Amino acid sequence: METSVKIRRLCLVKGRTISSVARQFNLSRNTVRKYLKQSDPPRYQRTTPRQCPQLDPFKDQLIQWLEADSLRPVRERRNAVLLYEGIQLKGYPGTYDSVQRFVKAWKDESAGLSNQAYVPLVFASGEACQFDWSHEQVVLGGIGVKIKLAHFRLCHSRKSYLRAYPKRDPGNGI
Predict the structure, then answer these.
(1) What pTM does this model have?
(2) What is the C-alpha separation between 143 and 160, in angstroms, rounded?
(3) How far apart are CA 88 and CA 96, in angstroms?
């Protein structure tokens, strides 16, 4: 990726010839032309997923452990290293990378179901508010004093404010 960016800079910005750039990077002129035609840098993509034949007999055990762990609190769940060590004790001869890829794919697949939810936040009048403390400098009787100030904002009033003035930025302290 870096090479394609450097080639584009040399040819298009600095005006160097394709032949001189090809000699500098030890590439063919056709490769340099290919990089110049592409608007985005080339990216490698696998055509088929990696095969893990040694992991196949242990996938059911991993899925069982992952499903059991998903019911536990987050701090008590096993990570990929502990799962790898567990199936090694059961006779798995493969590498950690295969287990890590499998665990990541399983988590992505199972998380896809829970990420589809949308809960709109709608509050009745006086039901909920946002609260925060701040320290402010004020002048009282000609003397600068630091005071503690409590800020309350009703969630219902914020919603109606946004509806009444949609073009104004509510983040500017108004």
Answers:
(1) 0.44
(2) 38
(3) 10
Bridge-based pairing of strands 129-140 and 143-154 is antiparallel
3-state DSSP percent of the chain in helix, strand and coil, to 5: 50, 15, 35
Distance CA 38, CA 41 (A): 7
Mean predicted confidence (pLDDT) in 7-32: 88
Distance of CA 94 to CAs 29, 64, 89, 98, 100, Å? 43, 19, 12, 7, 11
Helix (H) or strand (E) holding 164: helix 155-164
Phi, psi (rounded to 5 degrees) for 155? -65, -35
What's the token pair of residue 52?
């893990």
Per-residue HEC secondary structure of 140-156 comes to: ECCEEEEEEEEEEEEHH
pLDDT at 165 over 70: no
